[in-house]
Design a protein that fits this description.
10 strands; Pnp Oxidase, Chain A; mainly beta; globular; 10% helix
């Protein structure tokens, strides 16, 4: 059996607006802020664990400098900085599989850094999220 991942089928929306123009390589990274469980081992080897209910995290989006989505994320960042009105939902879905990620409250951490040179460079945008539901699964078999 052969399965296929198609990066063109990864869909991300921020505030309901589709994001596109991704950089080559890793273009989206989703991570939780804390581990789900913390293990504690006593001096006698007794093991306990504490569950974290912290569902916050971050989503890092890497775009080519030529992507129009830089303008979308920059506008969101600027609006938030000026009026505190930049908290929006964010959704990521892999349509060639079943992985989905969702945050009802995400915001741009800071404007992207920029560099200019002979080649097209990347713009990295980090969204902080108050909550992230994570469904990390596989991809469909090829037909």
């Amino acid at each position: 059996m052969v399965t296929t991942f198609d990066p063109k089928l990864v869909v991300i929306t921020v505030g309901g607006t589709p994001i596109s123009g991704f950089a080559d390589g890793t273009f989206i990274r989703v991570e939780r802020e804390t581990d789900t469980f913390t293990k504690v081992v006593g001096a006698d080897g007794f093991v306990s664990r504490a569950k974290s209910n912290n569902k916050s995290g971050s989503i890092t989006i890497t775009l080519a400098q030529t992507s129009n989505s830089n303008s979308v994320l920059n506008a969101l960042s600027t609006a938030d900085e000026l009026s505190n009105n930049g908290v929006v939902p964010c959704m990521i879905k892999d349509l060639s599989g079943t992985s989905t990620y969702f945050s009802s409250s995400a915001w741009v951490r800071k404007p992207s850094n920029a560099e200019f040179g002979k080649e097209i460079s990347n713009r990295e945008w980090v969204l902080d999220c108050a909550d992230i539901s994570m469904k990390t699964e596989g991809n469909f078999p090829s037909l």
